[in-house]
Amino acid sequence: MRPPPRRSAGGTIAGIFGGLTALVVLAILGLSALGGTQTTASGGTRAPISSGGGTGKLSPKEKATDNPLYKTGSLTSVSCRLPGILPSAESMRRFMNTLSDCLDAAWAKQFQKAGIPFDKPNRVFWVDPGRSPCGTYPAPGASAFYCPANNTMYVGLKHVVETSGGESLSHYSVYARVIAHEYGHHVQDRAGILLYGDRQMETGDSATGNAASRRIELQAQCFAGAFLGSERSTLPMTREQYVAMIIDVRGRGEDRKPVDERDHGSGAHYAGWVVTGFNGRDLTVCNTWIAPPSKVS
After folding, report:
1. Alpha carbon distance 138, 63 (integer Å)
2. Does residue 2 belong to any structural domain of this protein?
3. Kind of pairing, strands 152-156 and 144-147?
4. Using H for helix, E for strand and C for coil, what is the string for the chain?
5. Structural domains in the chain (count)
6. 137 within a domain of the structure (yes/no)
7. What is the predicted pLDDT for the residue at 2?
8. Does residue 1 form part of some domain?
9. Is residue 3 classed exposed, middle or buried when 0-12, 13-18 and 19+ CB atoms within 10 A define those classes?
10. pLDDT tens-digit profile of 67-78?
């Protein structure tokens, strides 16, 4: 029996932008760095995976396309303040635990608004290699993943730096986005969204499966952006932090692959859905399941 599929935030940076400056990157993505006009990527101005407790009357497809979570408005700020990261595994562990506590509090409030039962994910922040129900770690190029079989986030305390191209530890937003993305998969799991996505991946051909995977991954990006946006004033998410995060996620895109072979999405969309969530005023903007294929390629 194969292990349940793990959901990953994307691994090693695919490539740096040559002569592009940070401002050019922002212009390409059509972003205003810290507020202003909203630009949405959707086009608008396995031991069993959870089925989503408060969505029992919905079909699996409806749990993805019309989930009550989308109707709960913006995330409520929990005044999350992150510690700086020093070059040690213990400092990174403190950073990740602080951030995870904030994510627990923020998403618990959102699920309460939706009337959906919620429990926080388990955490394994590792230094030494190990095994999960979803396979061994580290996996090539992947520093972090979510395993729905045991509702656990796995993140390598040192590996997360290595797979970020040695990103400066002062750019904590880059590492915060990784954790918030994996937490986004837990949100999908608890809301019953992940079950539908994984069924699509299992029943279709490779192109259909990859298309479903992209909608899963890009939605997790949007959920991560929604959380980081709600905490922008207290993290704090400065312009420098924002630009560093966008450059990082833009570089993780699968632009060198044909669309049908991408399971995470192009760089523009991988970054663009973070921005959609960050600038969004409610979680409706994160519904990748009704977005046209051109917005999730």
Report:
1. 32
2. no
3. antiparallel
4. CCCCCCEECCCCCCCCCCCCCHHHHHHHHCCCCCCCCCCCCCCCCCCCCCCCHHHCCCCHHHHHHCCHHHHCCCCCCCCCCCCCCCCCHHHHHHHHHHHHHHHHHHHHHHHHHHCCCCCCCEEEEECCCEEECCEEECECCECEEEECCCCEEEEECCHHHHCCCCCCCCCHHHHHHHHHHHHHHHHHHHHCHHHHHHHHHHHCCHHHHHHHHHHHHHHHHHHHHHHHHHCCCCCCCCHHHHHHHHHHHHCCCCCCCCHHHCCCCCHHHHHHHHHHHHHCCCHHHHCHHHCCHHHCC
5. 1
6. yes
7. 37
8. no
9. middle
10. 999 999 999 999
The span from the CA of 166 to the CA of 49, in Å, is: 34
pLDDT value for 201:
86
278 within a domain of the structure (yes/no):
yes
Question: What is the residue type of 285?
Answer: V
Q: Which residues contact 18 (CB under 8 A, 6 or more apart)?
A: none
pLDDT reported for residue 189: 97
Inter-CA distances, 160 with 4, 117, 204, Å: 22, 31, 32
Output the six-digit token pair for 216: 């899963």
Domain coverage including residue 133: 7-295
Summarize pLDDT for 33-59 with one digit per residue, the tens.
454 333 333 333 233 344 444 566 889
